[in-house]
Amino acid sequence: MVNWLLRGAAVVFVAVLVSTPIPSGAIAPDDDLPDGDGKKILQAQCATCHELTEVTKFRGYYTSAQWRDIVKTMVEYGAELKEAEVETLVEYLTQHLGRR
Amino acid sequence: MIAGVRFHQLVRFVVLLVACAAPAAAQVRIVQTNSAGDNIHLIDPSTQAIVGEIKGVPINHGAAADPDGRRFYISSEAEQTLHVVDGKTLQTTKKIPLTGRPNNISIAKDGSRVYVGIVSAPGAVDVIDTKTLEKVKSISTKGGIHNVYVTPDGKHVIAGSIAGRVMTVIDQKTDEPLWTLFEEGVRPMAFEVNPDGSTKRIFVQISNLHGFAIVDFAQRKEVGRITLPDDVPAEKVDKGPFNASPSHGLGVAPDGKSLWVTSRPNARVYTYSLPDLKLLPNPVDLGGRPDWVTFTPDSKLIYITTENTDLVHAIDVSSRKEVAQIKVGKAPKRNITVVMR
C-alpha cells in the first residue's frame, strides 16, 4: 500500500516537472548557448521582446553579414543597442550560430 | 433487342464521355507554414487530417498559390529565396534568389506575379513573374516589409512595414506607390470589400496595439481603433513576450459577415460582426499564443495557429466551437487556403 502511494506520488511529481512551462523570455535548455557578452545582450535586449528560439532557429544558416542584417532590423524595430553591443552581438551570433 | 443493346451501349458511352470530360472535383487545402521548421503541411478540411507535406524549405515564412492550386510559392528566410513548389508532387522545382531576407508574400489575382516582402534594410517588395519564374522588379519601400497583400479586387498591393512604421498602397498595374498611412509598426491586415468587389476597409494590426485599426480605403485615412476585450482573469493572462505584437492575426470570412481577431495575451480569438463591428459573444479559448487565420471558401471553418503549442485549431464559424486540433510542425504561423482544381 505504501509502495503504491510512493509510486503515485513519484508519477505526479514527474508529471508536474514535465508540464511546468519554461518562463517566458528564459533561455530554454535546448538553446544550448555558451556564455559570453553576446549571450548577456541576447538575454537583456532580445528576450524582452521575443523568445530566443526566434534567434536560435536560424542556427547554421547565416553569415556574419546576414546576422548583421537581422540585428539591424531588430534595432529598427526598437532594440536599444549601442554600436559596440551590435558588434559584440553580431560576432557572438556568427561564432556560435553562424553558417558552418 | 439489338436496338436495346445498342441504346444501352450508347448510354454507357455518353456517361463515360461525360465523366472523362468533367473536371475533377476541386479540393480545398489549408496550407500551414512552420516558421521554425523546414516543412509545410497541407490539411484537408473535410477530414482535418494532414494529407501532404512540402519538405526542404528552411525557416519558411509566407505562402501563396496559383489560382488553380497547381503551384505553390513559399519564402525561406534561411535561404533568402522563394521556393516554387509543384502542387501535385509537392517538390520544389525552382528556388528564386531574392533581394534580401523575405517575410510574407502574396500573389496577383490572375496569378501572374508573386509579391515578396523584403524585411532587410532598406526594404522592398520583390516582384516575381510566374511565367518566367524570375525576379523582374524590386519596388523600393520605406523600411523593411513584413507583410504584403494583394487586395481582393487585385488592383492594389499593400505593404506593411514595422521598421518604417508605414503602410504603403501600391498600384498593381504600374507598381507605383499611391499613398501611405500610419506612423506605427504595421502588422497583419484583413480586407472588407464593397458589393462591386473593390476595397472598402482595411483592418490593420499595429505594433503594441491589442486590437486593430480601421482604415477607410476611399478616404485613405484611419477612421477608428478597436481594442480587444480585457476579459481573462489576470492570473491566466499570458505576459509574453509577443514580439511587440499582442494581436497578430485576423481575417474577414469569405462571406463578408464576420471579422476574426486573435489575442496572444488572452489566448483567444474574438469575433466581430460586419459591417457594424459589433463584438459577438463566446470568444474561443485556444490554449496558446494564436497567430494567423484562414477560412474555408464556404466560410464554415476557420483555421488558427498557436505557435507555442505547434497546433492548428479548426473552429466552426457559426457556433464558434473548436472542432479539431491538428498537430503540425515547429512554430506554425502564416497559413492560406488553396482550392486545387
Give the total of beta strands of chain B: 29
Q: How many angstroms separate the termini of chain B?
A: 42 Å
Fourth-tier CATH superfamily name of chain B: YVTN repeat-like/Quinoprotein amine dehydrogenase
- CATH fold annotation of chain B: Methylamine Dehydrogenase, Chain H
What percent strand of chain A?
Answer: under 5%
Tell me the span between the first and last alpha carbons of chain A.
57 Å
**Helix vs. strand class of chain A:** mainly alpha
Write up this protein.
The complex is a heterodimer of chains A (100) and B (341). Chain A is mainly α and 100 residues long. Chain A has a domain at 36-100: Cytochrome c-like domain (Cytochrome Bc1 Complex, Chain D, domain 2, Orthogonal Bundle), CATH 1.10.760.10. Chain A contains five helices and no strands. Chain A has helices at residues 2-19, 37-46, 53-56, 64-77, 83-97. In chain A, helix 4 packs across helix 5. The model of chain A is unreliable at 9-30 (pLDDT under 50). Chain B has 341 residues and is mostly beta strands. Chain B has one domain (25-340): 7 Propeller (Methylamine Dehydrogenase, Chain H), CATH 2.130.10.10. Helices cover 6% and strands 51% of the residues of chain B. Chain B contains one helix and 29 strands. Chain B has one helix spanning 2-21; strands at 27-34, 39-44, 49-55, 60-65, 71-76, 81-86, 92-97, 102-107, 113-118, 124-129, 134-140, 145-150, 156-161, 166-171, 177-181, 186-193, 199-206, 211-216, 221-227, 250-252, 258-263, 268-273, 278-279, 284-285, 290-295, 301-306, 311-316, 321-327, 332-340. In chain B, the strands form seven sheets. In chain B, strands 20, 21, 22, 23 and 24 form a five-stranded antiparallel beta sheet that branches. In chain B, strands 3-2-1-29 form a four-stranded antiparallel beta sheet, with no helix packed on it. The two termini of chain B are 42 Å apart. The model of chain B has no long low-confidence stretch (mean pLDDT 95). At the A-B interface, helix 4 of A face loops of B.
